[in-house]
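#structure-requests
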Amino acid sequence: AGAFISLNIQPMFRKMLSEFGVVFTWSSLWVNECVAWLPWIVGASYLLVVGPLLALLGMPLWFRDLPILGRLTMKHDGAWVMRGIAWMLGRNLPVPQALQLIATHYPKSRVRRAVRTVQLEAENGGNWSLSLAAVGLIRNVDAGLLSAAQRLGNVVWSLRETADATSRRIALRL
């Protein structure tokens, strides 16, 4: 909206006022200059905020495992964990064994620790989907959806769809 105003409306407004011989005060000139710079300010702030986030997804895994950056990508990793669980459950592997494989082979140590916690909860008879939410890999809403799908016997499809929805949500935020 600011770009539209500064590129289309403001020049026409200046032209109309100058045709009528209106003298601009210093405050109106200052406001006009601020509005003229608005697209550049918005564009620069967009690059300063969104650019690093996009670069974050393309970073090597060892770099994303740093404490602050690892927390930023936890939901992204949760989508991959859900895809892995869905793939293994589709091949008739039990949930604790699927979680053990993910906890052993996932490239990021923070996620391995979180999945190992979920695995221990699942082996002790706990709800693994609620445990995934407790460690921060998925949202509580998604955990409820997965619990309902597990009761209905449709957990593989639900895991895939929830992982895809999480990936789309992350992409939209970027």
